[in-house]
Structures are given as structure tokens and as C-alpha cells.
Write the C-alpha cells for this entry.
Amino acid sequence: MVWKLDDELWFPDPHWGDEDGDGLIAVGGDLSADRLLLAYSHGFFPWYAYHQGSEPHWYCPLNRFVIFPSEIHISHSMRQLIRQHKYQVTANQDFDGVIHGCSEAQGRNEEEGAWLGPDIIEAFTRLHHMGWAASIEVWESTDPPRPESGQRPDEASSEADNGRRRRLVGGLYGVTLRNAFFGESMFSLVPNASKLALIHLAKAMENIGGKFIDCQFETPLFKFMGGRHIHYDDYMKMLSP
């Protein structure tokens, strides 16, 4: 059964839905900060095709797919990439760039089923300004090589004059609530950028005692990175204050 939400702030008990379904439990309501925070505190998240003019659809699968920070899988190739320091990874330096990157990378926003549209972007940007949503950025330096011995300084770009120039090539964003991170979307413009962002997030969460990263649904990438299924009841026990 799918419930119709109204202007009141409430969500149905997800146990009333289909145990083996995709988790769709309610439609309607709005994307206000209060409703979103209530949703995530109970394991709900919005997901709907904005090109089709749909109202918000709210999902809460009883079979949750999560990554525990200490269990993040770092492959040999990723360890090599990290040691190369080819990319710089930051947090909350360009939330706007990340959420738009997630929306537009590989032409996602042109697909009929695209869900990360203007309303979602506005709502989660508002949460970010309130301190409830965060981003991880992956940057690639665009500075030309330093001058070789004997080369005049004016023949090459100077970091002192121009600052460090870089290009956003990947990242992820999500909601930070209690002791968990609720992943919303990620993107890569170069190979492995989203994996790098996810590893950085897991290590940062492990350092502060974060319990889990909610992946929402199982994907080959999340499974490869160490994700596994837990039941909603166990999920809520860990999420509870």
C-alpha cells in the first residue's frame, strides 16, 4: 500500500508496505527542510522523475544496503591511485558544483527518468546551508608543469601569481544526520573519482565514530566497495540517538 501525504508532517510505518518491494511507501507532501529531516531520521528518502511532473515519491526499503566505514573495500589499484596524489579530495568546498555535477554528468538530466532536478537541488542546497547536507569533492589540478631548469619564470604559469587552478572531476553528496551519512548521488568525469570520494567519506566517518553510509539501493559499485544488506529494524537501532 502507498499512502498519500498531506500538509501535515508525518510518514506511515514502513512495515505497512511490501516487505520485498522497492520501498515506495508514500507520495505527496513537499521538500521542506522539516519534512526532509523527519524523513531521513526514519530512513525515508525522496526519489521521483521530475520530467514527468511527478509529485515527491518517498521510499523506505526494509532491506537496506549500507557500507560500514571500517569495512570499505580499497582495491590494490585504488591504493596505488591514492599514493600517486593525482587528485585532491576535499569536503564541503563546492556543494553547488557537486550537486550540479551529479545532476548533469553523462547527460543524466536529459533522461526521461531523471530525478535530480531543480526542486531537489534547491531543497538539498537549503539543507547544506543549514548544516544537514555535505559534499565530498575530487579535484584535478589544471596548472601547467613547473618551469624546467633554465626556463624563464614568465614562460610558465606561476602558482604564486595565479593560485592553484583545479577542475572538479567527481564527488558525492548526501545528508548528515545523527551518526550516519545518507548518500544521495555521486559522479565521475574521470575514472575512479567517485570511488575516491567514497573512500574519503568512509575514512572520515570512521575517524569520528560514524556508524554507516546509507546507499539506499544495492548497485555493483556499492557491493564492490564493501556494502551489505541489513534489515530496517537493525538500521533504525543504529540510527537512533
